Amino acid sequence: MNLRSPFLSLLALAAAFPASAQSPAVPSMSQNQPPISIGQVTVNAGATFAGSNELIRSGLVWRIYEDRGDASQPVIVARSTSPAPSFTLSPGNYIINVAYGFASASKRISVQRGNLNERLAINAGALQLKGAVSGSPIPANRLTFSVYVPEAQNSEGRLVIADAKANDMIRLPEGTYHIVSTYGDANAIMRSDLKVESGRVTEATLNHRAATVTMKLVASEGGEAFAGTAFSVLTPGGDVIREAIGAFPSVTLAEGEYVLIARHEGKVYTREFKIESGLDRDIEVLAKP
Predict the structure, then answer these.
(1) Beta bridge partner(s), residue 114
(2) 36 three-state secondary structure
(3) How far apart are CA 211 and CA 87, in angstroms?
(4) Which has more pLDDT, 67 or 11?
């Protein structure tokens, strides 16, 4: 049964973060148990997705806490990353918690004698995200994703995870999420709302309308680029999008019109240019008075 006491809310929050952020390390319990001492009890645990009887086979983190019956800091007594662990416990009252990414479930158990079999249901699924431009996949190392939970009075929502990578398995409680995909490190951004269903992996490709350009300051068309040039990319209204220094730095920009300013040895040169989705190219600024 699911509990909603302040103590269990604290456990759910703790379970959403890596084990390294928890209480001091406790050796995990594996299937290869030492002989059970007199008076100890074996607890066999398993987890399913809500509405399904099929056991979850990966991505689980189990924690057993001593149940002190108050709101004090929980004390962890056992931990495991096995999908179906067995814990050897002394008689007493405990709270068993299982986390699946950012989702979790908890249950109070009383351990007295014999063996116990406990199965917890987690209302969760996962997202697996990719990006594309003009029908071509974007390399995973050029993309990052941020995931938000919608909130009233907040158009973007509350941040759940930042800088997730393409093809990562992002495990989340069932619900609707706002996804922000960033291609490169400038203004090539796409947004989408996606639904996570219990027991399912939602795969989605966010299609960007952008291109990568290489900026150059040259004496003539096709000429050698001047080293040590400072470039600024601006919108037609004058907002700075990206700045870079070098002979031929690159930037990925959203589709639209821009102004490129090149500064070299105290002189300033400008030109306007347009980004068309999927058309990667050089943008040359001529070093002429």
Answers:
(1) none
(2) coil
(3) 54
(4) 67
Mean pLDDT, rounded, for 158-177: 96
Q: CA 108: distance to chain centroid?
A: 30
> What pLDDT is attached to residue 38?
55
Q: Residue 23: pLDDT band by 50, 70, 90 thresholds?
A: very low
Single-letter amino acid, residue 196: V
Give the amino acid at 140. A
| 29-52: pLDDT as tens digits | 344 444 445 578 999 999 999 988
Q: Collect all residues with Cβ–Cβ distance below 8 Å to 260 and sequence separation of at least 6.
A: 215, 231, 232, 233, 234, 270, 271, 272, 273, 283, 285
| pLDDT mean over 111-133 | 94
Distance CA 274, CA 107 (A): 59
DSSP string, 105-150: EEEEEEE-SSEEEEEEEE-EEEEEEEEEETTEEPPGGGEEEEEEEE
- How far apart (Å, rounded) are the C-alpha atoms in residues 145 and 204? 12
Query: What percent of the chain is helix, strand and coil (3-state, nearest 5)?
Result: 5, 60, 35
Q: Which domains can be identified in the chain, with CATH numbers?
A: 6-122 (2.60.40.10), 125-208 (2.60.40.1120), 210-286 (2.60.40.10)
- Per the listing, tokens 């918690």 go with 97
Q: What residues contact 74, with CB distance under 8 A and at least 6 apart? A: 7, 10, 11, 14, 23, 65, 66, 68, 95
